[in-house]
From TrEMBL:
<feature type="transmembrane region" description="Helical">
    <location>
        <begin position="208"/>
        <end position="229"/>
    </location>
</feature>
<dbReference type="InterPro" id="IPR002781">
    <property type="entry name" value="TM_pro_TauE-like"/>
</dbReference>
<keyword id="KW-0472">Membrane</keyword>
<feature type="transmembrane region" description="Helical">
    <location>
        <begin position="143"/>
        <end position="170"/>
    </location>
</feature>
<protein>
    <recommendedName>
        <fullName>Probable membrane transporter protein</fullName>
    </recommendedName>
</protein>
<feature type="transmembrane region" description="Helical">
    <location>
        <begin position="78"/>
        <end position="97"/>
    </location>
</feature>
<keyword id="KW-0812">Transmembrane</keyword>
<keyword id="KW-1003">Cell membrane</keyword>
<dbReference type="GO" id="GO:0005886">
    <property type="term" value="C:plasma membrane"/>
</dbReference>
<dbReference type="Pfam" id="PF01925">
    <property type="entry name" value="TauE"/>
</dbReference>
<comment type="similarity">
    <text>Belongs to the 4-toluene sulfonate uptake permease (TSUP) (TC 2.A.102) family.</text>
</comment>
<feature type="transmembrane region" description="Helical">
    <location>
        <begin position="235"/>
        <end position="253"/>
    </location>
</feature>
<keyword id="KW-0813">Transport</keyword>
<keyword id="KW-1133">Transmembrane helix</keyword>
<feature type="transmembrane region" description="Helical">
    <location>
        <begin position="103"/>
        <end position="122"/>
    </location>
</feature>
<dbReference type="InterPro" id="IPR052017">
    <property type="entry name" value="TSUP"/>
</dbReference>
Length: 259
């Protein structure tokens, strides 16, 4: 940005605050922050806007992960291997963009989102009770597979990563929605840091704007984690269904436009 536009900065700051709040509960902060950046700064390169978004998000997500860790018994034996695998595989996902266009995945991702929403909606007890299913080597192996797959997806495509993580932690590991949301934040931090390892050295971010949005994103994450911890898994389940429904509509519209 050549000169500060205070109304523009204020609008993006508010977007970052709400993005941080949403992301801390169920993921999906990019649904707010990325469109806001593209609408406000159409003259900037997409890579610069994505880098600014990641810079802002990593602070809010890190704060949410820290706050969850203080209040929730974190399933570290599952979460840390998943985070490490996600960090490593996000690079592979980014490299895969060179030989396969991400838009080709839209119909598949749309189908997966519909399936996740339907499964969660019709299984009323889904994610209500925290009953971890795996132990030892099996838990470690499944965590690596989950983290690797999600990390690759986030590096390659990205939208809905937080929601997919929550769903898979509940479905595959038997977490409730509160523990799944907490674990997903740690994995999200890993994928965001991996992405920033590319964006920052190449100058693909707007430093002043990124810092302002990061501060607001952190504030939003404080509010979001407070709501999630106070109201528990039932509240997160409802938020999850709302976010996934919005993602389904967005993917459906984008897929139709491409046809």
């Amino acid at each position: 940005m050549a000169a500060p536009d205070y109304s523009l900065l204020a609008g993006l700051a508010v977007a970052a605050l709400f993005a941080g709040l949403l992301d801390a509960v169920v993921g999906g902060g990019g649904l707010i922050q990325i469109p806001a950046l593209f609408n406000a700064l159409p003259q900037e390169m997409p890579a610069t806007l994505f880098g600014t978004n990641k810079f802002s998000s990593v602070f809010g997500t890190s704060n949410a992960a820290w706050r969850y860790a203080r209040r929730v018994e974190m399933p570290w034996r599952t979460t840390l291997p998943a985070a490490l695998a996600a960090f490593a595989c996000s690079y592979a996902g980014a490299m895969a963009v060179t030989w396969l266009h991400p838009a080709m995945l839209r119909p598949l991702i749309l189908g997966l989102l519909v399936g996740a929403a339907a499964y969660t909606f019709f299984r009323r007890d889904f994610g209500a009770i925290h009953q971890p299913r795996h132990k030892g080597g099996q838990e470690f192996a499944y965590a690596l597979i989950l983290g690797g797959a999600i990390g690759f997806y986030d590096g390659f495509f990205g939208p809905g990563t937080g929601s997919f993580l929550i769903f898979l932690f509940v479905r595959l590991f038997g977490f409730d929605f509160l523990h799944a949301s907490a674990a997903s934040k740690v994995v999200n931090v890993a994928t965001n840091i991996a992405a920033l390892g590319f964006f920052i050295p190449h100058g693909h971010f707007l430093p002043l704007l990124a810092l302002i949005m990061a501060s607001c994103n952190v504030l939003g994450s404080f509010l979001g984690t407070h709501l999630a911890i106070r109201h528990g898994s039932g509240f997160i389940r409802k938020g999850f269904l709302c976010v996934v429904s919005v993602l389904i509509i967005k993917f459906a519209i984008d897929t139709i436009r491409l046809e």
